[in-house]
Amino acid sequence: MRLKAEYREPLAAGRLLLASPFGASARRVTASTALRCNRFVAALVDAVLVVLAQPGSKTEGLTREALGWDKRVYTLEHPANEGLEGLGVELWQVDK
């Protein structure tokens, strides 16, 4: 795999981590691989920000999974996200 030039210095200095659940043979993004990647990232972090999750969507499903892992999950105030608040998702507060 070829590494972008701007990644070399931060990677060597220990300021950048490149992580993936896929091997070098993965070349194409599919709905399945995108979900797998999102699960991988959600499992690594302390908190998740869900920007938009339509009711019944895969994003809503992943949100439920993250909550089941006892992750803090936040969302933005948007009509499509109203159902998330009932699940225990907190509204992201932007300081102005």
What does the model show?
- With 96 residues, the protein is α/β, with parallel strands linked by helices.
- It folds into two domains: 1-44, no CATH class; 46-96.
- It contains four helices and three strands, in the order H-H-E-H-E-H-E.
- It has helices spanning 5-12, 31-44, 58-68, 82-85, and strands spanning 47-50, 72-75, 90-91.
- Strands 1-2-3 form a three-stranded parallel sheet, covered by helices on one side.
- Helix 2 packs parallel to helix 3 (58-68).
- It starts with a helix and ends in a 5-residue tail after the last strand.
- The model has no long low-confidence stretch (mean pLDDT 90).
SSE order and pairing:
Elements: H1 5-12, H2 31-44, E1 47-50, H3 58-68, E2 72-75, H4 82-85, E3 90-91
Short structural summary:
By secondary structure, this protein is α/β, with parallel strands linked by helices. It is built from 4 helices and 3 strands; from the N terminus they run ααβαβαβ. The chain folds into 2 domains: 44 residues, no CATH class; 51 residues.
Sheet/helix structural class: alpha/beta
List unreliable stretches of 5+ residues.
Answer: none
Sketch the major β-sheet.
3 strands, parallel
Q: Biggest sheet: strands side by side, in what order?
A: 1-2-3
Q: Termini separation (Å)?
A: 42 Å
On the 0 to 100 scale, the average pLDDT is 90
Radius of gyration: 16 Å
Number of helices: 4
Q: Care to count the β-strands?
A: 3
Please provide the ordered H/E string of secondary-structure elements.
HHEHEHE
Strand residues, percent: 5-15%
Domain module count: 2
What overall form do the CA principal axes indicate? globular
* Helical residue percent band: 25-40%
